[in-house]
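Problem: given the chain below (340 residues), write out its structure.
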Amino acid sequence: MLFPTTVAGSLPKPSWLAEPNRLWPQWRLQGEELAAGKLDATLLAIKLQEDAGIDIVCDGEQSRQHFVHGFLEFVDGIDFAHKVEMGIRDNRYKAMVPVVRGELKLKGRVHQSEARHARAHTARKLKITLPGPMTISDTIADAHYGDKVKMAMAFADLLNQEARALAADGVDVIQFDEPAFNVFMDEVSGWGIDALHRAIDGLKCNTAVHICYGYGIQANIDWKNSLGTEWKQYEKIFPALARSRIKQVSVECINSRVPLKLLSLLEGKDVLVGVVDVATDTVETPEQVAQVIADVAKFVPKQHIVACTNCGMAPMRRDIAVAKLIALGAGAKLARKNFS
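Solution.
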């Protein structure tokens, strides 16, 4: 099938589970009720995607507050009690972050519950997302390793442990989220790709990396407005990704200033094309989605195009996110008809 559909990762959480319209929401349940609620929300996220015509569904990251810290909570050697303020994404914004104070080790499985629950309740292909090692190392303070690359490699080993277990759980696609790739471009072709390879080592399932210009929060919107009329950051990293062992690359397209011809630099890869904008409440029409797919098809072989969202939808209004999912499914269907 041409133009299968998927999402970049997160979906808004139901208001009974967590605060709505927040990137980092507080849970509204505790203990066993919270554990059960996370699984209920996972099932709901899958149902919403299936109803919208999404072909490769995701757990919607319903069991984690944040795409990075949802993983870090399961790692020993990290001090959450004494957070420090640190600049994130080359000081684009500041955040209070935990500190690495000892050797990093997994406490146990990270996403087993939601992955197995999702796998048991959908016959469609299933994707689970994990934070990438470079992005983790840019989202946490180090008081142990003394070397950012060494710390990132340690995280890559832990990510690989969980990724292998997820594949054994029946997950079809494991995606690593690396927004830091779009910031530290000079480091991607060196240790960034090496760390990613370490994270995917031994995986037989499909592997993906998501690189974008960030959630639709004000700090990211302001940064985008400073990037000029053409966003050419991808030009520097796509050749390295094309040479890498990663199978799929997820990128932001609709309403961005990315020259689509740059996508031709990802030769041989499946390209998860962002055809739904997460930085606006305006819902795309199926025709707009189909047009982006047609524009991308001038530079990427149509059999390598996957229709996707620009980024995660976690902080969005839930009704708008659902409407955008429906537009995504309908737009891909229209594009298939146009190319038949």
